[in-house]
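== Sequence and structure of one protein ==
=== Format: two labelled lines per protein ===
==== Data for this protein ====
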Amino acid sequence: MEIHKIVLTGGPCAGKTAARSWIQNSFERLGYRVLFIPEAYTELDCGGISSGAFRCNLDFQLPQFWLQLENEKVYERSARLMDTDKVLIVCDRGTIDNKPYMTEDEFSQILSELGMTEQQMLESYDAVFHMVTAANGAAEFYTLSNNQARTETPQEAIVLDDRLIEAWRGH
């Protein structure tokens, strides 16, 4: 069985959600079963687990890593049970996407808590596709209305986009 796991990353309002349809249609034509793992932050935020509920950023970041890693395990295990030869797992953001939201010390503490290295996180994905935020070059299309967890101004989105590129650089 052939299982590939990729990440769609990029700043807010980069078109990750819109890309899903194209990916699904294109890869199904190639004989793949396409599975989508939702963004951990949005799932937690919509479920009432928001950053304001924690004493510190580290305590908020840890559940995001737990959820992302567990979701990836569930999807990978499920893929192995499916009656198909080829599976593409698409992550709406990956573990490294949390790095720009914390200090280097916090990220080191997360790695220690999880018993992982940054390289292990990077190597757990076959490919990473960075989509540039609309705020950078197409500001008229930048919106907060299509994701209730999105709060960044256009300038904040551009800065975050740059930090995400840097975080994934080792992949």
In short: The two ends are 24 Å apart (CA to CA). Strands lie at 2-10, 33-37, 86-92, 127-131.
